[in-house]
Target: Dihydroxyacetone kinase subunit DhaK
Amino acid sequence: MRMLINVPETVVPDALRGMAAAHPELTVDVENRVVVRRDAPVTDKVGLVSGGGSGHEPLHGGFVGRGMLDAACAGEIFTSPVPDQMTRAAAAVDAGRGVLFIVKNYTGDVLNFDMAADLAQDEGIQVAKVLVDDDVAVTDSLYTAGRRGVGATLFVEKIAGAAAEEGAPLERVEALARQVVESSRSFGVALSACTTPAKGSPTFDLPDGELELGIGIHGEPGRERRPMMTSHEIADASVDAVLADLRPSGPVLALVNGMGATPLIELYGFNAEVQRVLAERGVPVARTLVGNYVTSLDMAGCSVTLCQADEELLRLWDAPVRTPGLRWGI
Amino acid sequence: MRMLINVPETVVPDALRGMAAAHPELTVDVENRVVVRRDAPVTDKVGLVSGGGSGHEPLHGGFVGRGMLDAACAGEIFTSPVPDQMTRAAAAVDAGRGVLFIVKNYTGDVLNFDMAADLAQDEGIQVAKVLVDDDVAVTDSLYTAGRRGVGATLFVEKIAGAAAEEGAPLERVEALARQVVESSRSFGVALSACTTPAKGSPTFDLPDGELELGIGIHGEPGRERRPMMTSHEIADASVDAVLADLRPSGPVLALVNGMGATPLIELYGFNAEVQRVLAERGVPVARTLVGNYVTSLDMAGCSVTLCQADEELLRLWDAPVRTPGLRWGI
Model:
């Protein structure tokens, strides 16, 4: 096991302590595993709360800050946080204009955010929820009924976050988040399995020289296993899988994402192929983000997320953001 | 071989095409492998040029932009760029106030940048050079006479870049770059070897359950091989190796860097341990940057770079920067 850790049991709190030390603009409640903007609750602003199992960093804690999330709840590795964390987060960020829960579609997350919404509403906090389910690879998976939520979560958090920062009311922030979900699709490919600290060995068996198309971010099975493909072929397969389900009539936002252990030089090379396919298919690209953003521990591989973006979504995408994982304009 | 590539021969130009597509604020000369700020040459500004072997991304191409480098030259994987690339870069960014070459201390890079400086000066461009040699692990290594240049390169490029952006003259930019070099030390640890595309297998043999202390960014041998250590122990060893050579009398900038394949959750956990050691040793930390910045392809591992920073260096560190790899304030 080649891990830079102390013991598996403390990986999540250790990382939260390290985040706190590096980012004084965040308040990190290590005991309860909640990361909050230091200036929360922000007067007259809708609060955005997300979270999920750890192991997908910078998602979600790395997207807390001005212009994006107000708070994120960190579960154990690949395990949903609990409702108590989410209600704490909601209480910490509610400024009286309500809170939006951004939930990736995994059964545990859905149940726990549902319960937390009920609890928060009992405490007088207005809560709306949006479910992210952008992964076209499979319907119904190891931890999911319906589609899994993956890369589009970044687009939802950024765009809804920008609207909230501008003072949009909860209904508007929620509607924009839904628009992003409906306009986004993803497809991922694993070149290696990931290893959870608790298990200490790969979560599934992927022989050298093979890859898995349509992988989930917890190593859930994909569509098919194939002999190793070139970057060119992987881009064709990934983009075409997305476009089979999303036929953009205008420009898209593109996220060319690494699964955690794929070097940036490979991701940029892959981006060249993704842009080639999109050009061949007649899809104009308005903005491209390349990097390891929605990850799966030390998995090697990549995913492509496209979001059809009208002018308003593009404007909100470009709006200033200041988080550990995504930052521009401030 | 689990690589997201087409063929080994095109890895570098493929990545440059992908960078060009993602970053319209850069001009990427794929044929000559030079990345330049689109607005270069910037009137009345000293030009900053760096570069080196590829495989260390985002270093250097990912640090081109406002407030940092004006241009970067990309060599083949782990191979110095050639003088022609450097003179092209110098000519592209020179606004008549001279150009600073920032050179990591590897024999090929040093020779080629020296030759390029002579050629550029023959063309009437005033050139100064600064050599980065911050790695305390070993003196004289596989590709180096003296100390290797690693993580401090990021500090040099950011701080000298900020000074140049403010209009400082070449002598001042060079002096600041030298101050950063003299004030910075690094130490790196490999948990796995890296695999170059051309070779297709690990560049050295590191059995599971062992690590190498003092590794270079091309897999050059370090100080010693040991059975796997905890994050706590690795932080002790790394920080103490740095502090044995740099005894800061004031606050430091800290770079807690991943070697490419180490997930962010592990790097943040490692940062908690680095901060603990620094606190125990009485070293105050002014700023911390955590992430995969000066990498070695798909190597798992980490490095620590400390830079003793006076108020002026801190101010220049905090100054706005807009590059693919490092961005804030704009």
Notes: Chain A has a mean pLDDT of 97. Chain A touches chain B through 66 residues (CB under 8 Å). The first strand of chain A starts at residue 26 and ends at 29. The helical segments of chain A are 11-22, 83-93, 107-122, 152-165, 170-182, 231-243, 264-280, 311-318.
